[in-house]
Amino acid sequence: MTPAGTAIQQDGxxxxxxxxxxxxxxxxxxxxxxxxxxxxxxxFHALGPIDLDIKPGEFVSIIGPSGCGKSTTMLLxxxxxxxxxxxxxxxxxxxxxxxxxxxIVFQDHLLLDFRTAIKNVMLQQEIRGLDKSALRTQADxxxxxxxxxxxxxxxxxxxxxxxxQRVSIARALVHNPSMLLMDExxxxxxxxxxxxxxxxxxxxxxxxxxxVLFITHSIEEAVGLSDRVLVMSKSPGTIVExxxxxxPRPRPAHLGEYPEFSKYAERIYSxxxxxxxxxx
Amino acid sequence: MTDRxxxxxxxxxxxxxxxxxxxxxxxxxxWEVLLRFFEVPIWLVPxxxxxxxxxxxxxxxxxxxxLWTSLTxxxxxxxxxxxxxxxxxAIISVGTLERGFYPVIVFLNIMPKTVIGPILIVWFxxxxxxxxxxxxLMCFFPILVDSMSGFRLVDRRLFYISRSMGADxxxxxxxxxxxxxxxxxxxxxxxxxxxxxxxxIIAEFIASNKGLGFMxxxxxxxxxxxxxxxxxxxxxIVALIFNGTMSMLGQWLMPWATRH
Lengths: 280, 260
Fold this sequence. Notes:
The complex is a heterodimer of chains A (about 280) and B (about 260).
Chain A: H1 5-12, E1 28-37, E2 44-54, E3 59-63, H2 70-77, E4 85-90, E5 93-94, E6 102-105, H3 117-121, H4 123-128, H5 132-145, H6 161-173, E7 179-183, H7 191-208, E8 211-216, H8 219-225, E9 228-233, E10 238-244, H9 259-275
Parallel strand pairs in A: 3-8, 3-9, 6-7, 7-8
Antiparallel strand pairs in A: 1-2, 1-4, 4-5, 9-10
Helix pairs in contact in A: 8-9
Chain B: H1 2-8, H2 11-38, H3 48-57, H4 59-93, H5 95-110, H6 116-124, H7 128-152, H8 156-164, H9 169-207, H10 212-221, H11 225-253, H12 255-258
């Protein structure tokens, strides 16, 4: 829980960070992170070794071809999956067991069908044993912020795909975690919904400044949202390039029209071409 | 809640019941006319007017047996659910158990359940208990198999989410895994009820001294064709009530599973 609004300004070179915006984000530092599935001759070296240094309140994307270990990286730094080698430090503390000061959003909403939208979000309160009315206030606020007002008592099947994913984001944030992990969260949405929800997430992040680790295969999302983009290659997954995205926030809907955006996108494309991800 | 009720009793349901009822009435009418025209004796094939009247005059007797049949279905089915669902979870959770149990389950599943009847009669004597045990065996396997796939098919990432909330295994089971597996378990239960309703009459033929199956068997001994046909109608009504309740329950509890 380090206040670090200013630190980001210096390191990321980002303009327009709101004055006095204080981060409750955690720092993530990983060294030699490696994942090997199986053992002996059948062992599959999936990931690493990779190093990560994510500052409190930073928005970092990992982009790469499918199967490169992006999702695995996310699970390893939270301790949700055991690592084969390496160390992870969250806020300077060595990670030994899964941490729960986090919120996760996956590509699929993964809401429980038997629960209404609000009860899906309040699952956080039930399991964590937190104060009900305080969490409800927090949930109501998030629902308002995410355009979910009026959807509280609807069941997932009564909501559109975009709404479901918004509920899923609310569930990941309602307990005010220091870290938000997103694994291709907009991958299943249509382009229009994706652009809107991307903007809404950016606005939410600008206010709360949680540390975000964002896994994606979309260059537009990575450049449109991140302070920093880490490009990964395949088998074993390693970070081949780090790109600091120095664009003003909030970023516009039609990024393609901006030469600065194109410059970053071109750079990622050329890395992918060099890696053989694209063959034209 | 009203949305759900409307979905469960929607227009399509009412209209399909009306069309079905009309078809049955036409069939019974043709039956009645043909039998009257050809003067078929009542001991060979009774007319609908005969066995429907019998259904009314012997209503106490028939309802009593129908009640026993229903009770037997409920007992066998509840026992099936209570044993199959936890067993499915245990088998899924312990890898060795799964490998060890699999051949046993396949063997018991393909075995005709009624062959156990005579054995059970020796152990427990003729009565509704044996019929309930046969019903249990009949609905046990579909519930077990579907519960197993239900527990197995829960999205792994859902466990990441519950673990990220700091859930203990107990919370993970009650708040995440069981609800997520519920649609599968329920579809197993639905098949289980169909099997139970099918099986209960046969079970009562061979092993009981109460219930519609027993009543029909006894009527057969007396060549009481009318009562046998009345019993058949009563058995169909019992089956309709159980299967109908189950599918309405499904539409009410899980409207997303039946939505297009």
